[in-house]
Amino acid sequence: MNKKHLILRRAAVPAILVLFCTLFWFGKPNDFGLGRNMEILVNMMRELSLFYVDEVDPDQLMQDAAEGMTRNLDPYTEFLPEEQMSNFDLLTTGKYGGIGSMIRKKGDYVIFAQPYEGSPVDRAGIRIGDKILSIEGEDTKGWDPAQISSALKGTPNTTVRIVIERLIGGEQDTLTLTRERVAIPSVPYAGFVAKGIGYIQHSDFTEGSYEEMRTAIEKLRAQDTLRGLILDYRSNGGGILQEAVKIVSMFVPKGTEVVRTKGRAATQENVFRTANDPILPDLPLAVLINGNSASAAEIVAGSLQDLDRAVLIGQKSFGKGLVQTTRPLGYHTLLKLTTAKYYIPSGRCIQAIDYSSRKQDGTVGKVADSLVREFTT
After folding, report:
1. What pLDDT is stored for residue 90 in this prediction?
2. Is 295 a catalytic residue?
3. What are the angstrom distances between the C-alpha of 59 and each of 12, 45, 161, 308?
4. pTM score of the predicted model
């Protein structure tokens, strides 16, 4: 055997292993096409890595390939490399390693918009409107909030040096802040808008949202007799399904169906019912929503409407009724993929956009399920 043949055979080994492992794993003759395409993908990545005219980054090739595979599916199916795990952790837990403040763009710079109480920013005396001039010696003029956020986040107990300009007085201060595990509150405000009429603003559905909501209700009940309650879900983009079900359980009888999921796989068909006795079974409820109320927020609002338990006020919600599941891919990476759709008690599917029926120009239509056929509460 000459050297040329030896090199070719060795180069083909990884792709052949992928093919045989794929066929062994799925064990179906009609999965040959999947194995074939996986072999082609591996071969293509190898050839680009070895022979492209300029040096290429294999990690970037992988991310580009993943983006290509998911581009025509839906916006929520995506590959999550290791460096994005902190962002994913923030979405699911509401916690991150950072200095604890909301930020926003103002002119050429980013300012502190809302320091969280007790956070490193709060303890350092930073106030709303203070401007971020530099981070670790680098001028932040022209940076957008995403760049600032990325630079300020990091592993807890590490430090970050910033220069700020005070809104009041204009003095510049150099501060070294120690990053901490910061928890973003799900319920930023609760109070009374009229005699006996409570109001709760609920901003997301991360771990612990139910406990925060229940605590807010108990505080309102301790202050005055509740005669009605307004739940504000405007611009709440959703989050963890189970938190939504537990929140609905405070207002409807135990064992009530809140939502069900249906997918292509039988394992994705599940019914979610309330598991606890309600604490406010008869209290009049009003739910505020807008065009940015989505996912778990729509489950709470839609189920309370379907069960004749609340009045909805505002604008038509976003229509995001797709269920995402994460699957490990190895090396601290994940695939977040859509596996099912949400259906509230009346049978309405929350999802308004059908990503499987794209037009020739690639666009998709948006039609609410309630406009397709009649539903009753």
Report:
1. 54
2. yes
3. 20, 10, 30, 51
4. 0.72
